[in-house]
UniProtKB/TrEMBL annotation:
UniProt xrefs under InterPro entries: Lysyl_oxidase
Classification of source organism: Eukaryota, Fungi, Fungi incertae sedis, Mucoromycota, Glomeromycotina
Pfam families linked: Lysyl_oxidase
Gene Ontology molecular function: any one: copper ion binding
Protein name as catalogued: 5235_t:CDS:1
Organism: Cetraspora pellucida
C-alpha cells in the first residue's frame, strides 16, 4: 500500500496534467515492438475485487487517487480508450510485433518486505532516475521475495493493419448491439463541416436490404491521421440505429456539433460516418444519407 507521504517527497509520485491527479511512476513499461507506451505513471486505485477469500476484504480505503493503494485480492482496472493510456502507433507501417508489458521493472513497488529503521520508518536509497523537473528520485529499500518478478512480464503477437483499429476489427467474443466497439466499417472517412456549428443528418435503408437495422456512429476525423478516428461509443459525436421503417422522407436523424479546433494541426471541421449491423449475425450494409 502506498500511503506514506515520503513517496511524494522522494519523487516517486508526480502530478499528471492529463488525468489531473498524482501518478505513481515506474509502475510499468509497455511496448509495441520498439515503440513505447505514452503513459508511464499510474494512480494506484483499488477498483475491482478479484478474489473471494478470507484474506480479501469486502471494502477498501484506496478507492480514490487522493489515498492510493491496491488492497490484497483486489486490482486496478482501466477501461480501453482512457486518455493518455495509449501506445501511439501513428505513422507505423503494417506489421506483426510483440505487444508487451513489464510491471514494476525498476523495483519501486516492494514485492517483499520494506526495510524499516528502529522507528519503523521506511528507509530510502538514491537511484539514477530523475523527475520530469530534474530532481533526484529515491526508492524505498526492500527485501524482495525469491523470484518476485517471475510473473511480471507478458506479451502477445499483435498484427497492426493500416487504417484499422479495434473498433473496425471483427468482433471475436460475441459482442452485439449498438454500443459495442468492434465490427464497424468506415462508410465516409472525411466529411467537412463548419467548426462549432450544428450538423443534422438523416439515414435510411433501401427497402430490399435484408439487414433489419444498422447502427450509425459519427466520429471526429483527424487531419494528422488523414481519416476517421474510429471512435468508441463513449466518444462518438452522435449515434443512431437505422431500421427498415426509416425512409427518405422520414429518416433516422442525428444532430451534433461540428468538431472544433484542437491545435494548429487539428483545426476541426471534419467528421466521419461508421456503420455496423446492429446485431452481429446480420449482414453489413451502407446507409443512405439525407443532409
Amino acid at each position: 500500500n502506498v500511503t506514506d507521504p515520503d513517496y511524494l517527497y522522494h519523487g516517486v509520485f508526480e502530478w499528471d496534467n492529463c488525468h489531473k491527479h498524482f501518478h505513481f511512476q515506474h509502475y510499468g513499461k509497455f511496448l509495441f515492438g520498439q515503440t513505447a507506451g505514452h503513459k508511464v505513471g499510474f494512480c494506484l486505485q483499488t477498483t475491482w475485487r478479484y478474489f473471494n477469500t478470507e484474506y480479501t476484504y469486502l471494502n477498501t480505503p484506496y478507492d480514490t487517487c487522493a489515498y492510493q493503494g491496491i488492497s490484497v485480492g483486489w486490482g486496478d482496472d482501466y477501461v480501453a480508450g482512457l486518455g493518455c493510456q495509449w501506445i501511439d502507433i501513428t505513422g507505423l507501417p503494417a506489421q506483426t510485433a510483440l505487444l508487451s508489458d513489464d510491471l514494476n521493472p525498476d523495483g519501486f513497488l516492494c514485492e517483499g518486505s520494506l526495510v524499516l529503521n528502529s522507528s519503523n520508518a521506511i528507509q530510502w536509497e538514491l537511484t539514477n532516475y530523475t523527475t520530469s523537473y530534474g530532481y533526484p528520485v529515491s526508492r524505498a529499500k526492500c527485501n524482495f521475495t525469491k523470484n518476485w518478478n517471475s510473473n511480471n512480464h507478458d506479451s502477445i503477437n499483435y498484427i497492426l493493419h493500416n487504417n484499422l483499429s479495434f473498433v473496425t476489427e471483427p468482433c471475436t467474443r460475441g459482442q452485439s448491439g449498438p454500443l459495442r466497439d468492434c465490427g464497424f466499417q468506415v462508410q465516409n472517412d472525411i466529411i467537412e463541416c463548419i467548426p462549432s456549428e450544428n450538423v443534422t443528418l438523416g439515414f435510411y435503408l433501401e427497402e430490399y436490404k435484408q439487414t433489419p437495422s444498422v447502427t450509425v456512429r459519427i466520429c471526429e476525423s483527424s487531419r494528422a491521421l488523414g481519416g476517421s478516428t474510429h471512435c468508441e461509443y463513449v466518444y462518438a459525436l452522435a449515434m443512431t440505429v437505422v431500421e427498415l421503417s426509416s425512409t427518405k422522407s422520414n429518416p433516422a436523424k442525428v444532430t451534433f456539433q461540428c468538431p472544433i479546433a484542437r491545435d494548429n494541426i487539428e483545426s476541426g471541421g471534419l467528421y466521419s460516418i461508421l456503420v455496423a449491423p446492429t446485431f452481429i449475425e446480420d449482414e453489413l450494409v451502407f446507409v443512405n444519407i439525407v443532409k
